[in-house]
Amino acid sequence: MSLTITPAALAAELGAPRLVVLDGSVFQRPAPDLSTMLQDSARASFEKSRIPGSVHLDALDWLWDRERPFRFALPAPDIAAAAFAAHGVGEGSRVVLYDRVGGNWATRTFWTLHWLGFEDVRVLEGGLAAWKAAGLPVESGPVAVPVPAARPFTPRPRGGAIADRDAVLAALGTPGVVVVNALSAEQHAGTGGLPYHRPGRIAGSRNLPAPLLADGTLTAEAVTALAEHAGIRRDDRVIAYCGGGIAASNLAFNLLRAGWTDLAVYDGSLDEWGRDPALPMETGPG
């Protein structure tokens, strides 16, 4: 099954039984002094303009374990699955994800479902912007409380789909395992952008910035070319990271649809790694 769907194809499916369309958007912006990343709910934007019948799943409320010490830490699998069930995703559901922020949050939601073992999920190519550009209908106004799934799905977590700091430490210098930074080239080099506690990158990591992946619209061949240019081989195990695991999910998603199979997102990413001066980082070209 394709991991993406075009706006025209989704429009033809709207209203079909068991179809659940989720908007996973969160608005993020660097603080003016670049000391941290700020985030805001996209709920008001969702109420102004959305794909008809879609549901807003706000990660700020539902998919962030605030008891853990880094930004956007995933909750336990049963809690995450219950959050999806509360928004209509259950056994037999067919899920389409979109966002209004360039694809990072749709793919973060995708990767969360992938980690939970949920299979029938696709990302809308180009997100809400492509839907509107195609002249397809939108709706606005207050939204009803989502209808919970009649049969919540049982999570069957893919343990290898999420990495922790120990897994990243073990990967450094290990043949066949590559750690890849999905942040900008400037952040990777430590020359600009938000530094996430310390400038630069996890020592020895490579760089494939998520914005190059074009909101799910690149062909698999184009994704493969970008990956190979970044030094990522198809038979590598890839651990993707960024500031808080969001752009990294975009990278992992696109590698998955381009044919990579052994993929993980470092959940803590630099929001965890950068806080600990004992963990190796480096700056400069690389």
Automatic annotation (TrEMBL):
One annotated GO molecular function: thiosulfate-cyanide sulfurtransferase activity
Superkingdom of this protein's organism: Bacteria
Domain spans labelled Rhodanese: 43-140, 200-282
Gene3D superfamilies membership: Rhodanese-like domain
One of the Pfam families matching this protein, by short name: Rhodanese
Swiss-Prot/TrEMBL keywords: Repeat, Transferase
PANTHER family named among the record's database cross-references: SULFURTRANSFERASE, THIOSULFATE SULFERTANSFERASE
Protein name per Swiss-Prot or TrEMBL: Sulfurtransferase
Species this protein is from: Neoroseomonas lacus
